[in-house]
Structure formats: structure tokens, C-alpha cells
Amino acid sequence: MEGMDRKLKRTTKPVGFYLFTDEKSALAYLEKHTARLKNLGVEEVVAKVFDVNEPLSQINQAKLA
User: Fold this and answer.
1) Cα–Cα distances in Å, from 45 out to 1, 10, 11, 12?
2) DSSP 3-65
3) A single Pfam family, by name (predicted)?
4) Distance between CA atoms of 16 and 37, rounded to whole angstroms?
5) Rounded alpha-carbon distances, angstroms, from residue 52 to 17, 20, 44, 64
6) pLDDT (tens digit, 9 = 90+) per residue, 6-54?
7) Domain presence at residue 31
8) First and final CA of the chain: distance in angstroms?
9) Residue 24 is part of which domain span?
10) 7-19 in b/e burial notation, b at 16+ Cβ within 10 A?
11) Domain count for the chain
12) Is 1 helix (H, G, I), strand (E, B) or coil?
């Protein structure tokens, strides 16, 4: 998907963490796939959009660029 940087996996629930280059891309992805899941019969989609904590990411040496 355009604007997606990478997906982070989580193993405890059927959940995914995605990193996008900008909020517009994240919201477009969310809208598209929420509609797709609802068409498949999924009644509730729970999503959260977070900002990157850049100072903390620098401490953790996150690869953001």
C-alpha cells in the first residue's frame, strides 16, 4: 500500500501494528480495510491511530526514515 512503511507483528490477538509515512495514508488504509472487513461480516473494527514519539524513538534508535 502506498505510504505504508512496515507492519509490526503481534502474536497475542488477531491484531496488527502498521507504520505509515503520514496520517493521510494511515486513515485511507483504515477506511479501505474497515469497509472490506464489514463486507465480510465483521461487525466491529477497533482501530487506533497514534503519532510517533520522535524523542523516544531517537533514544530507542528506531528506524523512522
Assistant:
1) 20, 17, 18, 17
2) TEEEEEE-SSSS-EEEEESSHHHHHHHHHHHHHHHHHTT------------HHHHHHTT----
3) ydhR
4) 14
5) 13, 10, 26, 9
6) 666 665 566 788 889 899 999 999 999 999 999 999 888 889 999 988 8
7) yes
8) 17
9) 4-59
10) eeeeeeeeeeebe
11) 1
12) coil
Instruction: Quote the CA–CA distance of 56 and 43 in Å, as a whole number.
Output: 36
Cβ atoms of 37 and 15 within 8 Å: the answer is: no
Q: How far apart are CA 7 and CA 46, in angstroms?
A: 17
The three three-digit cell numbers of residue 23, written as one number: 496520517
Residue 65 lies in a domain: no
- All three cell numbers of 24, joined, read 493521510
Residues in the chain: 65
Report the amino acid identity of residue 13.
Answer: K
